[in-house]
Structures are given as C-alpha cells and as structure tokens.
Amino acid sequence: MPEPRAPRQPDSPHEKRHTVHTKTRLAAALACTAAVLTWSLTTAGTAAAADPLTLTSGFYVSPESSPAVWVAANPTDSRAASIQTNIASRPIGRWFGTGSTGSAVASYVGKADSHDKLPVVVAYNLPGRDACGGESSGGAGSVAEYKTWISTFAAAIADRPAVVVIEPDALGDFSCMTQTAIDERLDMLRYATEMFQEKAPNTWAYLDGGNAGWTSAATMAPRLDAAGVDNVRGFSVNVSNYYSNSASLTYANAVNAELGGTARFVVDTSRNGNGSNGEWCNPAGRKLGTPPQTGGGAEMLLWVKTPGNSDGECGIAPTVPAGVFSPDLAMRLINGT
Fold first, then answer.
1. 169: annotated active-site residue
2. Is 268 among the catalytic positions?
C-alpha cells in the first residue's frame, strides 16, 4: 500500500505542477480517443502513447535504490561521499521480478508521480530467465503465472508516466533454449507488450534487444518483430552490459533499419564508460558511462542496471550474488579499475 501523504496546500508549486500534468494527461487521452479510428486505418508502426517526458519534470531519483540505501546506512564510510555523488544521486532503473507484486510497482511509480518525476522500471520475471548466463535464473513458474504477473504489473502503473524495459536478455537467450521454450517466450512477450499498450497508456515500453556483441541486427530484428515490438515504443540495447555508446548506437541503428526504421530505442550506459573487454560478468577495468539523459543518439540514454550491483558470483566479485550491491564494485566503476 502506498505511504499516506501529508496534507498539502492547494496553491503549492507542486500542486500546480501536478494539476497541469493531470490536465495534460486528460487532453492526451481525449486526443488519443478521437484518433482511434484514424489510427486503426493506418499501418500500425510504432505504438502511439502520450509522451511521458512532457508529463513529468525529469527522471526519478529514488532514495530507495541500493546505492542510496548503502550510503544512508554507512555515512562514515570513506567511500560513501563518492558513491552518493557519482551513483546514488543519479536516476537508476528499478527492477521487479519474482515475488514483486502490483502494490510494489504501484508504490514505486506513485512516489515518482507525487514528485512529477519519470520512473524507469524493469520487468524481469520470465520463466527460465537468464537461460544462457545462469547467474540470475528463476522467474515465474509457468506461462499462466507470468501472464498474470505482467498484467498486474502494467495495471499497477495505470495512467502514470513511466519508462519500462521489458525482460532483459529474453530475446538473446534463444541459443540456449528449445524451440518449444522459444515459442512460449515469444507468446509471453507479445502478451506483455499488449498489456502495457492496453493498461499503461502513458508508458513508453521497450522490448530488450540484446547488445552489440551477442547477435547480429539481422537476427535480432525478426525476434523483436515476433515478440510484438510494434505494440510498444521500441527496444532497449546493452542492458547490464558494457559495450560503448558508439558500438551500441551502431548496433541499435542497424536493428532499427532491419525493422524498417519505425521503432525508437534506448541504451543502457550505466557501466560502459570504458567499453567492453569481451566479458559480461563483473569484468575489471570498467567505468561509469554517460549519465541518464534524453537524446545522445538514442531516444534516451539510461542507467537501467544499478552500478555496483553484481552480475553474479564471478569476475572481480566472486562472492557477491547477482543483484546485490557491492561498494567495492561501485568504487571500481567510479575509478575505472
């Protein structure tokens, strides 16, 4: 359940901003309704949605991110100030997976909305997720369970603005899956795109499209198409990986060309400041990338992965499980060591 809010004066600056955004959403909804017939008679292309960037005043920086929580719990640690300045103060994606409920999603996006900020959230709960890497295995127990979960996820966002990355690695894992599992996965992803289109009208959702070192653009584009990319805003690249902006943009533009140039894309730049050395699991010598922003060659450059969260028990963090924050990993990314 969302936290209760203290009473506010109706003429406060925040109230005025919130009222303006509410009116903007209403106008967008009315315009969208009026355009339904026209839209239905045209080629689908990239799914239309209200612009969450214009409905908000910047990306949401959560005080509940794992770096922020660590800094708050360790204020006298010599690393705290640097981690706060370089990581915890940045907008970072919030991942939801096994065990996450609609109330958790609603609470998170609700807090962002109460500050007129745009949250970046990640849906990560497909059955058999991380089929190739194995460090983040798990997910929903069945197709039916996943469809209920993702429908609840989308409904929890409702009409609040959000950016959603749908199932990192899902389309890159095919070489480690049976054809039956691939067919089921494509069905679940198509359903996910339909749910965000139907239940979260002010959300820009992006199907994950792998990274520059995994598959070719000619291979990835048909997978995105089969997974329902036309139902959402576009696709994401380089999530939780290290490929440079240049390599990621080249790959993403090639994928988009294969799709007919109709999709938009976002790039995860959280840890790509030094580019990739060919390793994906806590490699040494990596560095923080470009801070989150709109543009930069993509629709947005985002920190989807939390810098300092482990990729798994591997590389320079052999005892830190996947998804757990390590101040040592964070400092290495800050210093490029």
1. yes
2. no
